[in-house]
Each structure stands twice: as structure tokens, then as C-alpha cells.
Amino acid sequence: MTTLPELLRTAIGRRGPLLARLHGEGTDCYRLLHGVTEGAPGLSVDRYGSLLLLQTWREPLAADAVEALAAIARGELGVELDVVANHRGREVPPDFVPHEPTPAALADRRCHERGVAFCIRARHRGQDPWLFLDLRSGRAVVQSIAAQKRVLNLFAYTCGVGICAAVGGAAAVTNVDFAHSALAVGRDNAAANDLPPERCTTVQSDCLPVLRQLAGMPVQRRGKHVPYLRVERQPYDLIVLDPPRLAKTPFGTIDVVNDYQSLWKPTLLALADGGTVLATNHVPTIDEAAWHTALRRCAEKAGRPLRELQPIAIDEDFPSFDGKPPLKVVLARI
Question: What is residue 94's predicted lDDT score, i.e. its pLDDT?
């Protein structure tokens, strides 16, 4: 039976050409082991700058297993890495002794993607890391096309895509998310890249009422007295639509499996003529071709037909069984 250190060593070796490219681009954050497809279901091993972050969803890793994986990563990459193991799965047995990270491992730090700085903390109030590594190629595309554009970043989380747009020369970036704590990290990310606050702003709000107002559509809400932020309608040249799979809000339900169109239509209506959308779908069971067809049909019905619908490939550090990664990303132009 192949051991976890052997699996990690093999996975890093498989990534040799990718890591060489990423390092050459000024990137020091990537997935080293995507356990679900590389022999270790329920485990991921990620590098975020000087941090090695292990996450488990099934069984937790004992302290010696964590240190063994850290030794492999340090040796294969040739860099010193602090290590933290976060268990996000079932409850651990009472007698289980977890790995205890050092104070230095828990300290705030920065990682970099194509030279863009992002703030990272191994443990915080939420569970998800502050930067989703599988969306790297989407951030790169946005950075490459954002110059002089007015950009709207919906479901912004810590504003990663918005930061890349601003670094790429966007005229103005508006990041919208309901979570104050996530947007606070986004503002720290902007400061880490010396971005003027007025060029990369944050808006704490449910995305649905903001999007519908920008599209010139009535705001739907559960109850007449549910307040929402009023925004003036203005067209955007580039919109990033990165919704969660399912969420129920006072302003409706987000359901990317059964009703992506309820987000897609107002997004298209909020675009300036000739505008562009970067859209994501995180649901593994959604067929990519069928999703593309639905996007085109909805655009036709909305009176904003697509001139182009370009799939964006996910980098090789997130391999899939069939070459069809769970995360699907498209660049659409009207």
C-alpha cells in the first residue's frame, strides 16, 4: 500500500513543469496533493507562501503523519515551510492527539500569485482558506483584460479576483459580499498591493438586491420590511460572477444547479454594451456543455446574445478523473 508521504512525493513530481512555470511567474501558492484524485480521498495539501496547509475531511492526521508530509514538501520544494493541519470532517476520537502548530505557523503572512500579494492566515473564524487556489486561471484572465474597465466582483469573498483586476489596471473595482470579515481581508489585500482604496472598493451587502438594481430589475424580498442597500444603476465593463452552489437569502434562493439563469440574466443586463463576464460553476455533477447551452439560451432570451463563450481551463494542480474538473469557468462576451 502506498503511504501518504509517497503519494505526496509522486504528486509533487508530477507537477514539476507546472511548478516551474508558476515559480517563474512569481507564484508561490498552489495545491501539492489533490487527494480525491491522487490516492488520498479526504486530504488536500496546499502551499501558501511559507505555509503548508493540510486539510482533512474524513479522518484527521496524527502529529507524526503531519510532520512526515511536511518533511516531504520541504525537501521536494527546497523551502522552509511552517505547517498547520486543519480537520474539517467528522468528530475525532477523545483519545486522538492532533498535531500542534507552532505560534509562527499560525501567524499572518502573505503568499503571491503572479506577483500579486494575498493575505493568509492558517486558522480564522471561517473554515475556507482566504484564497481559493483552483480559481487561479480565472484570476489570471481577469488581470489580463481588466485595464481601464469598470469591474464588478460579485460574491467577492476576500476580493481575490477584484484585487487582480485592480492590479491589472482596472479603472474601478467594486467588490460585493455579505460577509464583513471577508471584505476586511479584501481591504488588507488591496493595501498589500498598494492599491488606492477609491480604486478597489468593498460593498457589504447581499449580492442579489445589488445585482437586480444594477440590472434595472425589481428587488424581490421575503417580507416588505427587509431592508437592503440602495445602489444607482450603472453599467460595468467586466463582471465576475462566482456564486455558491446553494444559499437561501431574504432576497431569494441562489441555486446554481436548477436556476443559474436567475443570476445570469441580471448579470448580462448590468453589463455595458460589449461587456464581458467571468462566470463560475462549482457543482461537479453539472455537465459543462449543458451549462454553456443554458447560458447561451438565457442570453438570447434576455436580449443580450453572446458573441463568445470561452471555457477557461483549470491548472493541473487540480487534476480530475475524467479531465472535467468540478470547477467550471467561462469568459462570456456580449
Answer: 86
CB atoms within 10 A of CB 107: 14
pLDDT one-digit tens code per residue, 176-231: 999 999 999 999 999 999 999 999 999 999 999 999 999 999 999 887 789 999 99
Span(s) in the chain for CATH 3.40.50.150: 133-333
- Cell triple for residue 248? 437561501
pTM above 0.90, yes or no: yes
**Cell triple for 129:** 482558506
Architecture of domain 133-333: 3-Layer(aba) Sandwich (3.40)
Q: Indicate where the chain has its CATH 3.30.750.80 domain(s).
A: 4-120
Residues paired with 174 in a beta bridge: 152, 201
Q: Which CATH class is domain 4-120?
A: alpha beta
Closest CA relative to residue 102, chosen from 123, 72, 76, 78: 123
Return d(Cα 122, Cα 187) in angstroms, integer: 18
Whether 240 and 154 have beta carbons less than 8 Å apart is answered as yes
- Look at residues 194, 184, 159 and name the one whose alpha carbon lies nearest to residue 174: 159
Determine the straight-line distance between the first and last CA of the chain, rounded to whole angstroms. Answer: 52
Taking the C-alpha atoms of residue 321 and residue 176, their distance in angstroms, rounded to an integer, is 34
307 closest CA partner among 325, 295, 322? 295
In terms of C-beta distances under 8 Å and separation of at least 24 residues, what long-range contacts does 5-11 make, across chains too? 5/68, 5/69, 5/71, 5/72, 7/33, 7/35, 7/38, 7/39, 7/40, 8/32, 8/33, 8/45, 8/69, 8/72, 8/73, 8/76, 9/72, 9/76, 10/38, 11/38, 11/45
Beta bridge pairs of residue 312:
329
3-state SS, residue 261: helix
Asked which of 218-222, 244-248, 277-281 is least confident by mean pLDDT, the reply is 218-222
Determine the Cα–Cα distance for residues 191 and 2; give it in Å rounded to an integer: 44
3-state secondary structure of 83: strand
Q: Residue 101: which H helix or E strand, with range? A: none
